[in-house]
Amino acid sequence: MARADLHTAFFGGRGFTLYHATGAHGSRPLTPHFHDEYLICAQLAGHEECHVAGRLFSFEPGDVVLMNPQQVHTGNARGSSDVDYITLYVDRRLALGLVEDAAGPRCAPEFTSVRVTGRVELVSAITALHDLVRSDNAPGRTLEVEAALHNVVSHAFTEFSNLREPLRRSTNRIAHRKIARVVDYIRSLDPRIDPTTLSLDELASVAELSKYHFLRQFAQVVGMTPGAYLRTLRLCQAARELRSSRRSILEIALGAGFADHPSFSRAFARHMGMTPSQYQALGPL
């Protein structure tokens, strides 16, 4: 999700999206949200705060932030310093492919740390990838971009995921068993199903809780309401389709449960920081 109060630039390539944000401290925090990709972010300047899994994290210059797919988080600048950070969104299929190349077939990796400090080499690798992708001759340097991307992703996963420490829990693990069951249920739904057919009674029944207790527990544990979670999930699925299918934007919008192109474009822009057509123009995943 892009910060409306910062200057931002997006770059895309096969299996990834790169987002660079700079600017003066702003007072507009990011609302709870998530993405369908792995997130690897280098904090280059300024100070940020982020709520993840019920905990408040503070990020300083030189820190690296790691998020798993569909991990709910917020974000807000802290203090008066200008901020500068580079965020790499890595497609799940690309990440799994790189992991299989390095360690053999296994389940999808999960980051086990949110904040990583003192890893100058990882920050440098992220910065090098950004500089390469934004260069004028980047289209002719595909192999170099792929190598730089592989360097960042393999470094992050081999050092800070359950590949290194299999017994450590994912930072995206939901400890509340009944709410975790509902989240899995929502994720398993066919994206073509009309979202308006999903009722609160149905979700509360899956959780085996009253509607009142279910709503309260879901918001506390997940960090957003069931409706917001479902809408964000649909936007993530739509984003993937925009860069991996030949369907029109209107078809994708209707498939995601939106009534028309304009309402989808507004919601997508709030979530991604760019219009559907701009995101599609970043190239195929």
TrEMBL record:
One of its GO terms (molecular function) is DNA-binding transcription factor activity. Pfam families: AraC_binding (PF02311), HTH_18 (PF12833). InterPro entries: AraC-bd, AraC_XylS_family_regulators, Homeodomain-like_sf, HTH-like, HTH_AraC, HTH_AraC-typ_CS, RmlC-like_jellyroll, Tscrpt_reg_AraC-type_HTH. SMART domains: HTH_ARAC. Residues 180-282 form the HTH araC/xylS-type domain. The keyword Transcription applies. PROSITE patterns: HTH_ARAC_FAMILY_1, HTH_ARAC_FAMILY_2. It comes from the Bacteria. Keywords: Activator, DNA-binding, Transcription, Transcription regulation. This is Transcriptional regulator, AraC family.
